[in-house]
Design a protein that fits this description.
By secondary structure, the chain is mostly helical. The chain has 15 helices and five strands. It has one domain. The longest helix has 27 residues. The N terminus is likely disordered.
């Protein structure tokens, strides 16, 4: 890892290697805690599905609150899936891969392909020259101004909150995750095919036992709520006020981890359902720490105490961010374009 001598956070320069050394004791997973997390997530999730089916026989609106709660456990399953992808949930690589594949079916995500894309994301988060894999489509102001009409239209459409957090998650989990990424290797491709077959088998089994229409109604509801929450979490973790982005020559991994990933301080109940993923700055600096140890690591390392948290309320401002203003080094909304156009127009000689 490159050590940037100009990297600062708080009072003065920090050697990221020394910080990572302080984090090392929190990296080892505990089998008992991991197993308990699997139990307190999958068992309630299965129970909620049974309750939803029973309620649906009376009314969809009676089943809806349980579907929303099931979506919370769906997010928690994805966090376990995420940790398995980092090899941080169990000490055994095989155990991580087996549980990851199972959780991948439950979350409609091919494990090995996602793991590969997510590794790219971790190695390039905040790097302006390496966007495009495992991240939210983000253009700079200059790129947007130089783009053609159809690209600008597509970008505005994708960045619209209704699409990004509503339609987008369903497209992502139902369509895009069913497709093989062109650069994917053999194991990644097989992961996609295997997940797709498992999903068909799961739908057939539920359809036979409970009825296909009932399964689809409930599954789509859970997937919509969980997907929207998951996309929002990922979005706000890397699109927030004061976020770090830099060109490759200036980019630094440690700075990208600490200043390019947010500390999302959520209420305790939401922190539980999201598996402490709000401590994203800790996770990006040392991805091998299991989710149930992120908070303790954050509290133990003095550097992290100077990281300004984002609250549930203050995170809503992230909805207005659309583009990266490279000269100003900040995220801006589309309204900022008018200011730039007016400035350029006033600079043109008459």
């Amino acid at each position: 890892m490159k050590c940037n001598p100009d990297f600062t956070h708080g009072a003065g320069p920090v050697d990221p290697r020394s910080v990572r050394d302080l984090m090392a004791p929190y990296q080892a997973p505990t089998a008992v805690r991991s197993a308990w997390q699997v139990l307190n997530t999958l068992v309630p999730f299965a129970l909620l599905w049974w309750i939803m089916y029973r309620c649906l026989a009376v009314s969809y609106w009676l089943a809806l609150p349980f579907a929303v709660l099931a979506a919370g456990f769906h997010v928690r399953i994805f966090i376990i899936f995420h940790d398995c992808g980092h090899g941080s949930f169990f000490k055994s690589r095989l155990a991580n891969d087996l549980l990851g594949c199972l959780a991948g079916v439950l979350t409609f995500t091919p494990y090995f392909q996602w793991r590969w894309e997510h590794a790219v994301h971790h190695s390039s988060a905040g790097n302006l020259d390496k966007r495009g894999t495992g991240d939210v489509w983000t253009l700079t102001v200059q790129e947007y101004l130089e783009a053609g009409r159809w690209k600008r239209f597509a970008y505005r459409l994708v960045r619209n909150p209704v699409v990004l957090f509503g339609v987008g998650p369903l497209v992502l989990f139902l369509v895009l995750q069913r497709l093989v990424v062109p650069k994917a290797g053999r194991r990644e491709r097989l992961s996609v095919y295997g997940t797709n077959l498992a999903l068909l088998a799961m739908a057939a089994a539920h359809g036979w036992f409970f009825g296909l229409s009932a399964y689809l109604v409930l599954q789509l509801t859970v997937l919509l709520v969980a997907g929207s929450a998951g996309v929002w979490l990922f979005y706000v973790q890397h699109q927030f006020e004061g976020v770090y982005w830099a060109r490759h020559g200036e980019w630094d991994y440690a700075t990208g981890a600490l200043q390019g990933s947010s500390f999302y301080k959520l209420p305790r109940i939401l922190q539980w359902f999201t598996g402490n993923i709000g401590f994203h700055h800790v996770h990006h600096l040392r991805p091998g720490i299991p989710n149930y140890r992120l908070e303790k690591c954050h509290n133990a390392v003095p550097l992290f105490q100077s990281v300004k948290p984002i609250t549930l309320f203050s995170s809503l401002k992230s909805i207005t961010f659309r583009l990266w203003d490279e000269p100003a080094r900040r995220l801006v909304g589309f309204g900022h374009l008018r200011t730039i156009r007016q400035r350029r127009k006033s600079q043109v000689p008459s």
